[in-house]
Design brief:
It is built from eight helices and twelve strands. With 320 residues, it is α+β, with helices and mostly antiparallel strands. It folds into two domains: 183 residues, Fructose-1,6-Bisphosphatase, subunit A, domain 1 (Fructose-1,6-Bisphosphatase, Chain A, domain 1, 2-Layer Sandwich); 119 residues, D-Maltodextrin-Binding Protein, domain 2, CATH 3.40.190. A hairpin with a 4-residue loop joins strand 5 and strand 6. The longest helix is centred in the first third of the chain and has 21 residues. The model has no long low-confidence stretch (mean pLDDT 93). It binds 2,5-anhydro-1,6-di-O-phosphono-D-mannitol and magnesium ion (MG).
């Protein structure tokens, strides 16, 4: 197992060395995301300050337009991903259509991302994050994004919380790195992460319970008698990060109004499912394993249930 404190760049290179045929392209791709995330984190940390400096008509003291943090995060991701030359195309939750960067023509990968997930939490100083999902390029068209989640070559997230943590997997274990702000490096802090087999926490927006299917509602109700705690931050990255560490279940189900739920397959459900499954957990839409869903469009939504294996198995016995 890699040593605690190893820096992310060295970790990525050591992983690459395990595959003699690797060209280094994936390492460069991951490094581009790391770089973007460091700049996004510095903007997130200053968000309160920028708001104070901005005036009500959204111009700051210098007369510049104050951009929303999710727009800034999106622009930064696009810039670093494009400049890296490793990505043939990118799809963002914030953009209607995929982008094919000029210098990504020979890129071997495509990436889908949510630049700033949980953005409704920005103004209340609650943890938010960036989520990414990487697939191999196949034919250089939008079809590259419409591949099943189990074909991801890497996925992960960065959580801007009380500390900034980057968690990722290439399908071979899940590792977490904490940003040491004094040196500006992500250092291995959570090696070989494993989700507990069973937890004691459920995480779901229970205010929508009256719109859920009745078996689901009964099952979620039963957690109360079983002594579970409810924790719901309303930022998927934060809720999933806690679920990964403490176990239990995170869910954003379909309801009578939103037949496919709210969360997006490409930018949220699939990368988080890849992380959770690689940490020994389970993820489902209720009908099938999230990683088996073949997307039919880039902004497709799916119901999400993920977490500890036993908790998801119990849920599927009721709703599956
Ligand atoms: P966003 O991508 O616009 O930030 O929305 C996604 C967020 C998730 O982080 C979170 O799980 C969910 O929306 C919360 O939704 P709700 O407020 O309906 O519970
Ligand atoms: Mg989101």
């Amino acid at each position: 197992m890699a040593q605690l404190g190893m820096d992310l760049n060295r970790f990525i290179l050591e992983e690459e060395r395990k595959y003699p045929s690797a060209t280094g392209s994936l390492s460069l791709a991951l490094t581009a995301i790391e770089s973007a995330s460091k700049i996004i984190e510095s903007k997130v940390r200053k968000a309160g300050l920028s708001n104070i400096l901005g005036t009500t008509d959204n111009t700051n003291v210098s007369g510049d337009q104050v951009q929303k943090l999710d727009v800034i995060a999106n622009d930064l991701m696009i810039r670093y991903i494009s400049d890296s030359g490793q990505f043939h195309a990118l799809a963002s939750e914030e953009l209607d259509d995929p982008v094919f960067p000029e210098n990504g023509r020979d890129g071997k990968y495509v990436i889908s991302f949510d630049p700033l997930d949980g953005s409704s939490n920005i103004n209340v100083n609650v943890s938010i994050g960036t989520i990414f999902s990487i697939h191999k390029k196949i034919d250089g068209t939008v079809n590259d994004f419409l591949q099943e989640g189990h074909k991801q070559v890497a996925a992960g997230y960065i959580i801007y919380g009380s500390s900034t943590v980057l968690v990722y997997t290439t399908g071979n274990g899940v590792n977490g790195f904490t940003l040491d702000p004094s040196v500006g490096m992500f250092l291995l802090s959570h090696p070989d992460m494993k989700i507990p087999e069973k937890g004691k926490i459920y995480s779901i927006n229970e205010a929508y319970a009256h719109k859920w299917e009745k078996n689901l509602k009964a099952h979620i109700d039963s957690y109360k008698e079983k002594g579970y705690s409810l924790r719901y931050i309303g930022s998927m990255v934060s809720d999933v990060h806690r679920t990964l560490i403490k176990g239990g279940i995170f869910a954003y189900p379909a309801d009578s109004k939103n037949k496919s739920g709210k969360l997006r397959l490409l930018y949220e459900a699939s990368p988080m499912a890849f992380v959770i499954e690689n940490a020994g957990g389970r993820s489902t839409t209720g009908a099938e394993d999230t990683l088996n869903v073949k997307p039919d469009s880039i902004h497709q939504r799916v119901p999400v249930f993920l977490g500890s294996r036993e908790d998801i198995n119990e849920l599927l016995n009721v709703i599956g």
